[in-house]
Structure formats: structure tokens, C-alpha cells
Specification:
By secondary structure, this protein is α/β, with parallel strands linked by helices. It is built from ten helices and ten strands. It has an eight-stranded mixed β-sheet with strand order 1-4-5-6-7-8-9-10. A two-stranded antiparallel ribbon has the order 2-3. Helix 2 packs parallel to helix 4, helix 6 packs parallel to helix 7 and helix 9 runs antiparallel to helix 10.
Length: 300
Amino acid sequence: MEKLEKENEPMVRYKGLIIRPPSEARSLILQVTYGCSHNACTFCATYKGCAFQLRDLEEIREDIAIAKRLYPRTNRVFLADGNALCRSTDELMEILFMLNKSFPALERVGTYANAQDLLEKSEAELKALSDSKLAIFYLGLESGDDETLKKVRKGVTAEEMVRAVRKGKEAGMRSSIMVLLGLGGVENSKIHALRTAEILSEMEPEYISALTLMVIPGTKLHREMEMGEFSLPDQLGLLRELRHMVENINVRSSLFRSNHASNYLPLGGVLSRDRQAIIDAIDYALKKPEILRPEFMRGL
């Protein structure tokens, strides 16, 4: 995204902590909501202290006009914050109309999504959004194990997330699904891995991203860990969990990545083609843990 420098040019405005998927690194980030409407997951500190709010449409319109002057060649836009799809379809269509009108080179718009928002919109609504270039959504499955999801207060079941992803895909959107290694703790590590693999197989997303849980001070999960109610697997335990997961995902063409900064071992490939190479790399790391990313280099 190329910026045209102009003296005293007003800038696109942002409020609070802004996050986006790694694949949206070169996208224009446009806040259409503030915070997360759920904001109850025990492991997440991203939007704590930030009240959920729909951003005023006039402010959004102003920021698009500013971005049009600054970044006229924009070809990708990411709608922030946590779940932009909770806005009404009419409002989202208006935002997408403005983006398409302002950026002739626009190829796609992406957003985080949760299952409730996808399920609450009709097939026709999602198809209209897709036709207006809302082309990809990023959904945090976290775990395919309902017991784990309940413990971390995800607010939805694995099967609800399967239905939501399928509904979005049927409307023409691509899906990128995130899972959290370690979320089941030591006790449920294997069942977390196996059930997550099962649910990913049912979803068959275009992209799968495995992140490693980092327990953040101030979260409920951190308090549980301090009280001995939760234990995070060690490095080798996390690698074994990843191996169980990769070995049991049954998909045709999903691109798998574990190259997020939180991970000890960056990996990637098309699972149907590269599964054995990924497993071999994990097995090598299990024997040679000194090759793993050092703790000080990990981050969210």
C-alpha cells in the first residue's frame, strides 16, 4: 500500500489496540467497530478495558475519504476490530460500497468473524457481502473440543462454528481458521488436538493457522494457572500436540501455517501434499529441541 505524502494531511484515525492477521500486513485497516462484542474468553487480553461500540458511519466515511487521498492504490482493506460482521448488513453494504467506489484497484476486503454473526445473517445477506468483495473472514476456532471451549468461555460450540464457516464459504467467502496449541492444558492436550483436527476436517477451510497459547497476566486463565487450575504443556508437549493435530486433519487443499510469532517451530505447507514433511520437521524438533525459537523471540 503506497502512501502519497502530503504536508499537514489528516490521517486515518484509530482507537485502542489494533490487531490484524499476518496476511493483512499490507492492507488498509479500517475500524468499523471498537473492541469485541463477546470479550469474555479467559485467555484473551486484547480488548480488555475497551467497551464494545459500533463506530459512527460518518466517521468511517471521513476516514475512507482520507485514505483515498493518502493511499489511492489500495487493493486490500481489513475491517477491524474484533467482529465487524455484527454490524447490520445494510451498514456493511454501505461501507463496502464506499470502499469499492474509493479504491478502483480494490481486490478484497477481510474481517475477523465469530460464529454468531455468520449464523445470524441470511444466505442472501452473506452472498451480497461476498459479491461486494468481502472475500475472506478469519475465525478463531481455538479448539474443537467443546469441554475446552466451555472452560475458556468461548461462547459457542465447535459444531456451531462448523455451520458458520460452511455458511460463509457457501456464500463465496474464503475462510482462515485459527487454533490455539496448548489451550486444553496438559490434561486435555491430546483430546484438544484430535477434536480440533476433526472439526477442521469438517470445516475444510482454505487456510489453517496454528498459534501457541501465551498466558497473559491479568487474564482469567493466568489467574487459573497461578492457582494451579491450569497447566500449559511444555515445548515438547506442544510439539506433540501439534503432531497429533497435523496427523489427523483430513482436508483436500487447505494451506497450513504455524509461523506466527507465538510458535516455537515455524512450519507451513498444503496438508494434502506436505503433511509428511511437516510431521518429519516436528519429529526432528522433538529430537533436537535446541532448534526451537527461543522464548525471548516469541510474541503475540
